[in-house]
Design goal:
By secondary structure, the protein is an alpha+beta fold. Helices cover 23% and strands 30% of the residues. Helix 1 crosses helix 3. The longest helix has 14 residues, at 32-45.
Length: 260
């Protein structure tokens, strides 16, 4: 993986904007996490929790909605990603100070994106090993030069068509069991969000060409245009992961939503 100079990366397998059901949608038809998210967003919009106010705890939301803690965590994580709440480990969730305008990109699991379209996802792991950290990688991943860093190279398929080449480095201190995980059953994004919740993410998005290896793994030509995303995530100033996500331009589209 060539580490670009541009700042960037959000971990996970796909990056997209989460779009909630329209105003006329039946709330009961929403997924459980979406109902919790809508409840909290409505409360924030109505001023029920002013900036810096402590919001309902995970345990309270589990009891109120009759769902698992994982479901509540997903709702809170997405609200945090949208800048609506602040989560402090050991203390709880607080209403955030909102800027007049915001634009958000949400880290999403590519497996979830694909299955939501009614398609089949599977992953092929081409590399999973510990490597000595290089001079270029060290300051971005928070690992000393020469110390072990985890490296995986995975291609994700949608209905057997290669959709994304994921070249990822992981800080072993944040996910010591990373290399023992079966990434044909769970995506690195899903796993890392469970074991190393992020506090900050930086990303860079550009069009460009795949490397020779990436083109071969994706089954495209060396000069075919690609959407390339480089993302870096951090937990309390400790880098978690740096990932390069390469998508054939003809097979992938990045969508979003903006509102003043």
């Amino acid at each position: 993986m060539a580490i670009p100079d541009a700042t960037g990366t959000r971990n996970g397998i796909g990056i997209g904007i989460a779009i909630a059901p329209g105003p006329g949608a039946d709330p009961s038809a929403r997924a459980p996490y979406a109902r919790i998210k809508a409840f909290l967003k409505d409360g924030l919009a109505a001023g029920r929790w002013p900036p810096d106010a402590l919001m309902p705890s995970e345990s309270e939301l589990v009891a109120q909605f009759g769902v698992s803690r994982m479901t509540v965590t997903r709702a809170l994580r997405e609200l945090q990603g949208e800048g609506l709440v602040t989560r402090v480990q050991g203390l709880g969730t607080y209403a955030a100070h909102l800027a007049p305008v915001s634009s958000t990109i949400t880290i999403r699991d590519l497996h979830e994106e694909i299955t939501a379209r009614g398609h089949r996802h599977h992953a092929t792991v081409h590399l999973a090993r510990a490597e000595p950290c290089t001079d270029a990688l060290a300051p971005r991943i928070g690992v000393a030069v020469g110390a072990p860093v985890f490296h995986t190279l995975i291609v994700h398929h949608e209905n057997d068509v290669p959709l994304q080449c994921e070249d990822r480095y992981v800080n072993p201190a944040c996910a010591p069991e990373y290399l023992h995980t079966d990434f044909t059953r769970i995506t690195p994004t899903h796993y890392l969000l469970q074991v190393a919740p992020l506090w900050e993410a930086q990303y860079a998005i550009e069009s460009g060409n795949a490397t020779a290896q990436e083109a071969r793994l994706l089954g495209i030509g060396a000069r075919d245009p690609c959407l390339i995303i480089v993302r870096r995530t951090v937990n309390r100033d400790v880098p978690i992961t740096l990932v390069r996500l390469v998508h054939p331009g003809s097979r992938y589209r990045l969508e979003g939503q903006f509102s003043p």
